[in-house]
Amino acid sequence: MDQAHAEEILKKVIAIPTVNDNEKEVADYLASLFAPYEDQGVTIEELAYSPGRSNLIVTIGEGETTLGFSGHQDVVDPGDLADWDTDPFVPTIKEGRLIGRGASDMKSGLAAVVCAMLAMLEEKKVPGKIKLIATVGEESGEYGAAQVTDAGLADDLSALVIAEPTDGMRQICYTSKGVVDYHVTSKGIAAHSSRPHEGEDAIAHLLEFANEVQARLARLDKKDPVLGKLTSLITLIKGGEQINSVPSQAELSGNIRTIPGYTNQVIFDVIDGLIAELNAKPGYQLSVDYIYPEEPMPGDAHSPLVQLLQKVGLEVFGHTLTPVGGTGASDGSEFVRAKGDYPIVMVGPGSDSQHQPNEWVSLAAYHQAIAFYQQFANEFFGK
Ligand SMILES: [Zn+2]
C-alpha cells in the first residue's frame, strides 16, 4: 500500500465525527475497504450496539492460531473549538503531523492495523488467521468491547494487540489498572430538625458508609510491582433538603482503581458486604450501583509476545520499545474476560496529545506503525 492511500484512509476515518456515537459510519467505511477481498476468504461482520453504532469484526487468512488486532472507533468530545487551531473533524497536515480529533486516540492506530491487513491482502501474503476488532464506546465505558466479548467473538484469539497510543510506538503497555465506579444512595425519613428522633438521618448513614468503606478498602494493600497499590476516592457527595430538616436522602460516588492482585469481585464483596451490614441496622436504607466496572489487565513484561514486539520494534524503528503499566482502563479490560487465556498488549502510533485540543499523530510514526504491524504478524506466524 502506498503512503498516499494510507493517509487517505486515516483522513477519512478522522473526518467521521464519532463522539461517543456514529461509529457505524466508520465500520461501514472500513468494511468497504475489505469487501473486494471477500472472494479470498475474508469475512466481514458488523455487530450493532444500537442504531448508528456498530462494532466491526473482519477476519483474514486461515489457520489454527488467531492473532487479534483491535482499536476503538469512537473519540472524545473536541471541547471548546476556540482551543483548536483547525477544525477537529477536518484532518490537517502541518510539519509532518496530522491534526484532528482521534489522530492520536486512536484512529491512527485503528487505520494502521487496517492498512497493515489490507497490505497483506494486496500482496497476497497473509501469514495466518488475523482478526480485526473495531469497537464502539471505548471512551464512555468500553461497552463495545464488552458486547464483543460477551458474544464470544474474542474467545478464539491467541494474542491481542490493541493499537492504543503508546508514545509514538516507543512503549508497550502490557498491564493496566481496572476501574470500579460506584454510586451509593442513602434514604432516610424527613422530620423537623427540632425533633430529630422522628426522622432517619440519611447523611449520617451515608457518612458511616463513606468512612468504613475507605477503611476496609485500605486493607487491600497488596502492591503490584508496576502498577502500585489499589486506590480509592470518594469523588462526589451531596444530600439533604434544607438547614432545619433531618435529611431524607443523600448520595455519593466513588472511583476505585484496581490492580491484578484483586479481581473486581473482591471489591464488590467489600462494598456489598458493608451495605448489607449497615442495612441490618434499624432505619438504614442504602443501595449501590456499579457503573461500567473494568477488570485490571494482568501481564508479563517478559512474555514471548512482548519480546517479539520488542524484536520487531528494533528491526522496524531501530529502537527498543519499553514495557510499561497503564493506570487507565481500556478495551483490554473487557477482552480479559474472554474465554481463552491469551496475552493482551497495547502498542500504537499516537502521541501523548490524546483528549487534548490540536490532537496529533506523527505521519512518520503512522507509516512506520503499518510496517511494524505487518512485520509483527509475519514473525508471529513464523514467516
Ligand atoms: Zn483510546
TrEMBL record:
Entries under SUPFAM superfamilies matching the protein: Bacterial exopeptidase dimerisation domain (SSF55031), Zn-dependent exopeptidases (SSF53187)
Enzyme Commission number(s) from the entry: 3.5.1.18
Alphabetized UniProt keyword annotations: Amino-acid biosynthesis, Cobalt, Diaminopimelate biosynthesis, Hydrolase, Lysine biosynthesis, Metal-binding, Zinc
Biological process according to GO: diaminopimelate biosynthetic process; lysine biosynthetic process via diaminopimelate
Signal peptide coordinates: none
Catalytic activity: N-succinyl-(2S,6S)-2,6-diaminopimelate + H2O = (2S,6S)-2,6-diaminopimelate + succinate
PROSITE patterns, per database record: ARGE_DAPE_CPG2_1, ARGE_DAPE_CPG2_2
CDD domains according to UniProt: M20_ArgE_DapE-like
Recorded metabolic or biological pathway in which this protein acts: Amino-acid biosynthesis; L-lysine biosynthesis via DAP pathway; LL-2,6-diaminopimelate from (S)-tetrahydrodipicolinate (succinylase route): step 3/3
Organism superkingdom: Bacteria
GO molecular function: metal ion binding; succinyl-diaminopimelate desuccinylase activity
Required co-factors: Zn(2+); Co(2+)
Chain ranges of the Peptidase M20 dimerisation domain: 175-279
Similarity-based family: Belongs to the peptidase M20A family.
Name the UniProt record assigns to this protein: Probable succinyl-diaminopimelate desuccinylase
Species: Limosilactobacillus fermentum
The organism's taxonomic lineage, starting at the top: Bacteria, Bacillati, Bacillota, Bacilli, Lactobacillales
